[in-house]
Amino acid sequence: MRTEDGKIINRCLNGEPEAFGFLVDKYKACIYALAYSKVHNFHDAQDITQEVFLQAYRDLRKLKNGDSFLWWIYSIAYNTCKNWLRAQSTRPDIIFIKDQDELDKILESSSIEAYRDDLEIESLHEVPN
């Protein structure tokens, strides 16, 4: 491991866990950007980014080659986003929200049509015979 990332990883694995903060500082913006591009929500992207770095820290010993840290953490981020999206799509309240959105559209269109109908009726009553 000749790269800077490799040296930092070696420090982490050799009993210096605070060195992992350098990797977090280095890659947090790009991991956040990936998460935000997938989930389209600021707070959820922050949570996912944090989870990615926690998982990376826990699994740091599984990394075979410190030179590939960036690709390794990107794969963790991608899989974390995929799992988050899958979990969100199966939540029962999401179905309710989708149904609620459709209901709101129906009610809104019905009320607009009723308002237009009332205006037409009023205008017909105002027309001189």
What's a quick, concise take on this entry?
80% of the residues lie in helices and 0% in strands. With 129 residues, the chain is an all-alpha fold.
Identify the CATH class of the largest domain.
Answer: Mainly Alpha
User: What is the count of DSSP helices, taking H or I runs of 4+ residues?
Assistant: 5
pLDDT < 50 stretches: none
Number of strands: 0
Shape: rod-shaped
Annotated CATH architecture of the largest domain: Orthogonal Bundle
What can you see in these coordinates?
The protein is an all-alpha fold and 129 residues long. It folds into two domains: 1-90, Rna Polymerase Sigma Factor, Chain: A, CATH 1.10.1740.10; 92-129. 80% of the residues lie in helices and 0% in strands. It has five helices and no strands. The chain has helices spanning 4-13, 20-39, 42-58, 69-89, 92-126. α2 (20-39) crosses α3, α2 (20-39) packs across α4 and α3 (42-58) packs across α4 (69-89).
Which features would summarize this protein structure in a list?
single chain; 129 residues; mainly alpha; Rna Polymerase Sigma Factor, Chain: A; 5 helices; 80% helix; rod-shaped
What topology emerges from the helices and strands here?
Layout: H1 4-13, H2 20-39, H3 42-58, H4 69-89, H5 92-126
